[in-house]
Structure formats: C-alpha cells, structure tokens
Amino acid sequence: MPRPYVVEYRVYEGADALARAAAEYFVESARTAAAARGLARIAISGGSTPKRAFELLANPAEPYRKAMPWEQVQIYWVDERCVPPDDKDSNYRMTREAMLDKVPLKPEQIFRIEGELEPEQAAARYETAIRGQFRLEGAELPTFDVLALGMGDDGHTASIFPHTDAIHELGRVVVANHVPQKDTWRVTLTWPVIVQARDIFFLIGGKDKADPLHRVLEGPYDPETLPSQLIQPRSGLLRMLLDKDAAALLPAPDAQGAGKLEIAR
C-alpha cells in the first residue's frame, strides 16, 4: 500500500551544475553519516550524471575530494548489469575509472556486484556480503546511510523495470531480475531495502525524463508500470536533484530552485 511522503526537489540549470550538486550532496550526506555513526555506507547507481559527479569527487583540483571522509566510506552498488567488471556496460567499471582508481579507498571498502557470475549466484553472493557487513539476522534489512538512484524514461529505477518480478519481491535484500525489454538479466537491491535507507535521492536529467517523472510523482499509483513509484522512503522524505529539462512538468520551483510536493495517494 502507498504511504504519504514528501518530495523536496532542487532544479539546476544544466548537466555541470547538476553534477556539482550531486558531488556536494554525496560529501555532505557522507560527512553527516560518518559523524553520527563513524561510517558512511553509500549505495550508488550508474549513468552519465553520476559519472560526472564521481569525476568531480576524484579531482584534486575540486573541493569535494578533500572534504569527503574517505576513510569512513563504504561503497556499494544499487544494481549491476550481468557483465564482467571490465565490460563497457559495467556500472562498476564506470565508477572505478571515474573515481575509485583515483581516491584513497581500500579494496575492503568497496563491495561490487559480481556481474560476471550466473545471475542468481551473483545476487546471492552480494546479499551475503551485505548481510555480513551489516550483521543482519533473519529477515532484517540493511539500512544504507546514503542511496542514490536514477530513473529511466520508462519509469524504472535501480534494475526494477516495468512488469518484472522484482516489483513483487518483499523478502530478499538482492535479486536477479530478468528484463525482457532488454533481453538481459540484472542484479538489483530490492525496493524494500531501498526505501529503508536513511537518505535517498534521485539524480535525474534530460528532456526524456520530464513526462515519466511527472507521472511518477503526480499521476495515478501504478508501480507495475512505473516502478519508481515504489520508492516511498520510510523516513517520509525523498530528495531529488533535477535539471530544468527533467523538472519541466513539475510545479515551478522558487527563486532558489527549490520545490516541494506532498505525495498522498
């Protein structure tokens, strides 16, 4: 059943401003988590805008690299394609090349999805790794400190695509999800895990996202068609960083670029 929540969104002029806002958000949320709990467990997604943000975080000429509490960070992935780690489509490869190879993170701080394995095995191994790090028992779900999401032009998020089995998964931490639309398998965190995170934000840019974003936030509740509607944070607050093209059909933000929606379906 849908639950009420608040969406706070910020709208930025273009791709560079959006990437800089994302880099700053990663730093601020990681510092908050590290100060509160001594550790910042961050789950990240792929895509061109996250890539730009990761490059900024890794750039010694930018302020973000120095401000990030690298020694207290753990990096996880929200989802992964079922490809080897050196494949051009690998989310891990993108992140490694943009950031991981350039920042002071040790291998034991990085928890990738082994996309080169058989999908169910990759999902099981990733769930085992998460359970071990979070010391979970039984049906417990992990609580990530920061979790970054994107959204596809079909309304999918993570690798939870329209009309796929992952929409209905309630008990597991990680699943292998067959995506007929792309004739492929993906490995993804489940939506009950995603909504458990302390700080969840969407990073969305592009004209092709305006209509699906409008339907996700202001249209009828239909998560079978628009899986992003499943992301109703337990905290009651969902943040979105948007460029002006993606935000074109939402209520106009204020002079500072801030907008707010109360979702109660």
TrEMBL record:
- What gene is it encoded by? pgl
What function does this protein fulfil? Hydrolysis of 6-phosphogluconolactone to 6-phosphogluconate.
Which reactions appear under catalytic activity for this entry?
6-phospho-D-glucono-1,5-lactone + H2O = 6-phospho-D-gluconate + H(+)
MF terms from GO for this chain are: 6-phosphogluconolactonase activity
Q: Any idea where the Glucosamine/galactosamine-6-phosphate isomerase domain is? A: 15-236
Family stated for the protein in its record: Belongs to the glucosamine/galactosamine-6-phosphate isomerase family. 6-phosphogluconolactonase subfamily.
Q: What is the lineage of its organism?
A: Bacteria, Pseudomonadati, Acidobacteriota, Terriglobia, Terriglobales
Its EC number is 3.1.1.31
Q: Does the keyword Glycoprotein apply?
A: no
What organism does this protein naturally occur in? Paracidobacterium acidisoli
Q: What is this protein called?
A: 6-phosphogluconolactonase
